[in-house]
Amino acid sequence: MVTIKDIAKIAGVSPSTVSRVVSNHPRISHETSRKVKAIMEQEGYHPNIMAKSLVSKTTQTLGILLPRPAEELFQNDFFGELLRGIVTQATSAGYDTLITTVTKDTDELMAISRLVRGQRVDGILLLSSRTSDPVIGFLQENEFPFVLIGRSDDYQDVLSIDNNNVQAAQDATNHLISQGHTRIGFINGPTNLVVSQDRLAGYHKALCEANIVARPEWAIAVDMMQQSGFRAISGYMSMPDRPSALVVFDDAIAFGVLRGLTELGYSVPEDISLVSFNNIPLSGVASTPISSVDIGIYHLGYTASQFLLRSAQGKPLPEDQIIIPHRLIVRKSSINQISSE
Amino acid sequence: MVTIKDIAKIAGVSPSTVSRVVSNHPRISHETSRKVKAIMEQEGYHPNIMAKSLVSKTTQTLGILLPRPAEELFQNDFFGELLRGIVTQATSAGYDTLITTVTKDTDELMAISRLVRGQRVDGILLLSSRTSDPVIGFLQENEFPFVLIGRSDDYQDVLSIDNNNVQAAQDATNHLISQGHTRIGFINGPTNLVVSQDRLAGYHKALCEANIVARPEWAIAVDMMQQSGFRAISGYMSMPDRPSALVVFDDAIAFGVLRGLTELGYSVPEDISLVSFNNIPLSGVASTPISSVDIGIYHLGYTASQFLLRSAQGKPLPEDQIIIPHRLIVRKSSINQISSE
DNA sequence: GAACAGCGTGCATACGTTTGCACCTGACTG
DNA sequence: CAGTCAGGTGCAAACGTATGCACGCTGTTC
Description:
Chains A, B: It holds the Pfam family Peripla_BP_3. 2 copies of one chain form a homodimer. By secondary structure, chain A is α/β, with parallel strands linked by helices. Chain A has helices at residues 4-11, 15-22, 30-43, 49-56, 77-92, 107-117, 134-141, 165-178, 194-209, 226-237, 251-263, 297-312; strands at 61-65, 96-100, 123-126, 146-149, 160-163, 184-188, 219-221, 245-248, 273-277, 291-294, 321-324, 327-329. Chain A has 3 domains: 1-29; 61-163 and 297-323, 3-Layer(aba) Sandwich (Rossmann fold), CATH 3.40.50; 165-295 and 327-334, Response regulator (Rossmann fold). Chain A is 42% helix and 15% strand. Chain A has a 6-stranded parallel β-sheet, sandwiched between helices. In chain A, helix 5 (77-92) runs parallel beside helix 12, helix 6 packs parallel to helix 7 (134-141) and helix 10 (226-237) packs across helix 11. The longest helix of chain A is centred in the first third of the chain and has 16 residues, at 77-92. The termini of chain A are far apart. Strand 2 of chain A pairs antiparallel with strand 2 (96-100) of chain B, so a sheet runs across the interface.
């Protein structure tokens, strides 16, 4: 492999000069620069990044700790889109993106520790938004740049990029209310996720502000598999007194719900209206197109990446929390004027 | 940051000894090893990976060149699942995974060149399966370890991990034939992808073997957006003489087709049967569950990663092409005994 | 009792860069 | 004409680790 010394020898200059040419040092003569650059091109020279990192103490790399394979994020489009946002921004800033994953919860700290202590990355992007995350504590102690996608109540002064999920759920619920519904249920995601808690809170807030009394038995939690949406809906429909509309945590679950309803002979939105979250591409081509809150997943990743880079470069971070705007996309599943009771 | 020298000083030994402890050198006394390990633990020492790489000429990292953001793979579940397979295998072997992407085609070579020449990764995983890919040529010239997910006809001696897409399409088509269909159409993906060509070939082969004459106007190509499936189907249905069954390139497109059919007042599988590919989780909960060929995406990524690691470690590669088995999952969209004509 | 084997450790060098400092040259100043 | 200055370049040290070689020590063998 051709090194800086080889180039220097061919060009008849010292390695330092070549190095300065590479970094566009101001005090290199135009002619030398031109000559060296030509030789680099001709020899196909690229600086060895390891050597560079060793002295510069910087890796030009961002780390991402993936949620465990078993976890939900991998199950649907969310992750791919998020990653696209992250990588696009990082790449445009000349950074690479490093991915690690773990199989057991207990390995998480080890994996992070390896990245941080081994100085393999300049900053870390955390995807999990569990209520309590030891990784956050570790990163804070070591004053290592990191950004959280999501939110954590248990730690202070953490830069996190998130949607206003309370507001988003409130918007979704209010939309149903504005369509004349008063009997509104909620199918939530895993309750240990902050986002689930936020959306549930938004749902309750909307009901409260509309002076609708929440019915506890109408708010349930399922895991992220669309099968569970399928199962959940039959529970609802067998209730003697059932809701006329549902807010659903996630499009994948909503698909299951929709399918269950069809199978049971109900139709959407006539018998029951639906609004869900994430607005994955397929939402629009479901048998009944599903109204969904677009939470700007790409934007989320892009922004997180952007702020992490700033932080990694030692620049001050503007705020403690960045909110990515959401937008309710109304489709057929919730367009319905039911008779007011 | 604590280095090997610090540990050495505290333990009262030389850095070499510490280094040997870390790598479990046989000629280190048990007691020294124990003592040094205790100190490493206590000081939170992790070897600097950059320095390590510099001397060992190895990075313990795999590179992935993402398809361009605009490209299809990002659009659906395929990519997330593939990545999960790749990263899981790599991580279990102690490797990290580095992701880069480019915005323009012309940047691809630059990006790859940076990784290879800069010795940033030990091997590269190529996701694109375009018929002609300059990146493959570059990697071959430089004798750099790489594995192709997909297939390329233009280069010899490339280790590629792929499905038998010809067979898969043949199976899908045969399934429709076995259901009594003789009027079978094909909605293909982008024609510059090898996989599209293979599936089209399999479709033709099945027809041919069943002595069914292929109708050129029944085989069309669309891009990967599900909207295009939506549009395509109206073209079919306005034909005076239309197929009774369709093989569709991808689940996302199939969703669009399904939706189009419903909108036009047709039902599946009664008016028209469908079989598609990829078997994404949502296929099973479509309004009519879609029959789909499961191509083992996770398995594809996992295996590719596995062979790339072998190659990166200088081990010989067993074969030129590894085939990941596929499996047709029959669902309602294709279960239909139509009257034989 | 000398020679030798084997174990455990340290010294020195190398990996490919960056960068502070010093040096040289020529031009310009007073 | 000596002195200053700025531009252009090279020297050498440093980053943190791995490893071939040499060295000292202990115990064994003839």
